[in-house]
Amino acid sequence: MQIKDKVLDVPVIQGGMGVGVSLSSLAGAVAANGACGVISSVNAGYDEQDFKSSPFKANLRALDYHIKRAKQIAAESTKKGLVAVNIMTAVSHYEESCKTAVSAGADIIISGAGLPLNLPQFTKGTDTLAAPIVSSGRAARIIMKTYKKHYDVYPDMFIIEGSMAGGHLGFGADDITQGKTQTNDEILSDVLAVIEEYGADIPVFVAGGVFDGKDMAHYVNEGAAGVQIATRFIATNECDASDTFKKAVVNAKREDIRIIKSPVGMPARAINSPLLERLDAGETFTARKCNGCLTACKKDDSIPYCISRALIAAVKGDWDNGLFFAGSNADRVDRIMSVQELINEIITDYRLNKSDI
């Protein structure tokens, strides 16, 4: 498929997962197999020697390195894939992260966790595409109107993320648990209507609870250009996360997947773990030194734990102290496979289920 001047052989986006779960090894392998690999920018330099003393410099340096490395991995393949970066609007140094992604040659900046209303400031006139994440037609309309008014552009693509996704969610916790959120189908329909209203031609990818090629065929038949899948890519050989994290996904049962309250004030979906059980029992802990990674974090003793430290513990394989984000279908993941095998399985299943109309 064609997205402006870029070609994507496989209309699948590997969701961005932080901290450190999707860096260059995973994103590069996905792009080398013709899909869109995504590097998560949040604390990308968590493993750098100077991360604790100079997190800002470490993160930008690591982000630049991982983008370039992922593109090098992809360039060794004859398939046409893309390398994107997920930069949450809630991260500190959002502007600097976007500029780094553009200068390093990222094909796309994917941005959510709030409305990325100034994203075209960094992408307009460059080779990097702007891809806002939205969870409603209303959000899509605000972005369309704002981009046109202030930058005379529209988004290059939209990713809609439903309430079945992993990690931080753009819905109220009660609405999620009580089933009051819009379905992916409803959000897709609303966003497509907004795009049509503006007379634009913008591809839309569906995320949140998307598991296989059958799901992909369903959304494409409903008007989507493709899908974004995250959790299944954790259980791949090339994923940058620890084997402990991969096994946590493979071993997860339906009852292990739960909605939690993040210290940044948003609901999130994660796999039950010793850390969450201790928090349920009233234990709290904070970072000795705050890295200032998220603007929404209160950075004081009122937060029950440091989410950055917990996510870093997870990616490093610390089961007792880690926070393991995962999507609603994590219990359906039953084994670890290669990225190539996973993408081939999704596309084979998609072709068997897609509409011929």
From TrEMBL:
Keywords: Dioxygenase, Flavoprotein, FMN, Oxidoreductase
UniProt cross-references to CDD domains, sorted A to Z: NPD_like
GO MF term set: dioxygenase activity; nitronate monooxygenase activity
Pfam families, A to Z: NMO
Highest rank taxon of the organism: Bacteria
Function: Nitronate monooxygenase that uses molecular oxygen to catalyze the oxidative denitrification of alkyl nitronates. Acts on propionate 3-nitronate (P3N), the presumed physiological substrate. Probably functions in the detoxification of P3N, a metabolic poison produced by plants and fungi as a defense mechanism.
Name of the protein in question: Probable nitronate monooxygenase
